[in-house]
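Re-run with default settings, no changes from the original entry. Doing this only to confirm the output is reproducible before filing.
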Amino acid sequence: MGALALAGALFASCSREAAIIEQELAQMTLREKVGQLFCIRPESLDPDIVYSTSAELPEIHLQEVNGRMKETAARYPVGGVVLFAHNIKDPDQLADFVEDIRDFPGAPLLCVDEEGGRVARLANNPAFGLPKYESMAAFRTPGEVKDAAFTIGSYLKRLGFDIDFAPVADVNTNPENIVIGNRAFSDNPKDAAKKVKAYVKGLRKAGVLGCLKHFPGHGDTQADTHFGYAVSGKTWEEMAACEMIPFKAGIRAGAPLVMTAHISAPAVTGSDVPSTLSPAILREKLRDELGFKGVIITDAMEMGAITRQYSVPEACVLALEAGVDILLCVKDYPACFEAVLTAVEEGRLSEERIDESVRRILRLKTI
């Protein structure tokens, strides 16, 4: 096929895909659209499960869909579900759980954190007998990274997952960082960039979608945003010379998702607002300057960096105003859903703004 013919075929294919998405969007109710904006823990669908922090959830061992969850999902359709280690027992249990989650309204995407190393919900479960990796920092070459990512993506695909919240695109420049450490590929941004690119391509080759995290870079902070406020004192120019290098490489490699960090960057934004809630970080820098056209997903909205400063329902609305597409791990899903719905009905968020994100999500589901 000649170059012009190939270009014409690709254009026609994209046009058909866009038309299908628009048709699907036009048929959705506002509630169905709002549901697409959330990726939740399965526990969030069971009103009988009450917890203060996520650290309590492993003791609950929610590993199957029950009637209460089905009732909640019928009223509050959801766009994605993320499973954690405590939700996963063995291959047979996981297969049943995934199958039942797939039946929820909203055609939810199945997501997991399977970076390799210490963050590997499946490989670190001996019931699965999967390959294990020391850490991302232990890989010497991009080729090794791509092979590992293909292996990880292949078993995730086989087990029913759509999205891997990986790779970590942070640069580990602060030795006192207690969150990232050897989850990052390197303390050298150019080396990290090559390996981030390789990881994204390895996952895609296996048929699984990757997610760059944690934008605009969690590697040069000291505090843990799981528990409270964290800050980067860097200017945008300093970030461009370091943190942005791996993110740019991952975007160029075709990463379809970017996860936000709850860190503040006052030298960039002029305020202490977390990046997850910052239009300057998400719209001006990630969208406009870096040219990212895919899905922006938050880090978990139940983390202390959010909950100690905001009510989570209000933070969800602020994140959408800032340019986020998917809200991850809200503790009280019905309350957050209703807050977004009310924001649209009262005109604080336009339905056109919601449609903007839902289009991206529907497109993600066709990849």
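Residues 95 and 159 are 7 Å apart (CA to CA). The chain is about 45% helix and 10% strand.
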